[in-house]
Design brief:
Length: 157
């Protein structure tokens, strides 16, 4: 699913920024799930991407985390709605990702802070979540309606 990050305090967030965050993070995910539910055959898999910032909130991400929060609810609802057709629907909640998408919002000090919150002192890499996606898309067929936090322990601190 699509995503966009905004790191800004609530009192400084404009209505336009709020609408953009919810359009990209929540609305786009809803219509992705809807279309997948229409197009998938029995036994299909839907995997959404949410955020660990909902479970390990850090300052300034309220609009981003708020825009991602509905995706977990859409994921659980779709799992119930599509389950009779054998379609599993799950979410993956990575920690802060080591991608250009992340660095544009952060100072070097904040990057160091986020790294310190994982068990190995690193940010989540794309290759860290690929095995989780593969598992959910194949052998994890019995898992549905769940959020899997693949974040290097980011939410345990």
């Amino acid at each position: 699913t699509a995503g966009k990050v905004l790191r800004k305090p609530i009192v400084e967030t404009t209505e336009e920024e709020f609408d953009t965050m919810f359009d990209i993070n929540a609305k786009a995910a809803f219509f992705f799930i809807k279309q997948a539910g229409i197009d998938l055959n029995e036994g299909g898999k839907i995997i959404t991407i949410v955020t660990s910032l909902l479970a390990a909130f850090t300052d300034g991400y309220s609009t981003y985390a708020g825009g991602k929060a509905p995706v977990e609810d859409f994921t659980r609802a779709a799992a119930k709605e599509f389950g009779r057709r054998g379609i599993s629907v799950n979410a993956i909640g990575p920690g802060p990702m080591d991608t250009p998408f992340f660095y544009g919002q952060e100072t070097p000090e904040r990057v160091a802070y986020h790294k310190s919150q994982s068990m190995n002192g690193e940010l989540t890499r794309i290759e860290d979540i690929v095995p989780v996606v593969k598992f959910l898309a194949t052998d994890g067929w019995w898992i549905t309606g769940q959020t899997i936090f693949a974040n290097g322990g980011y939410t345990t601190r």
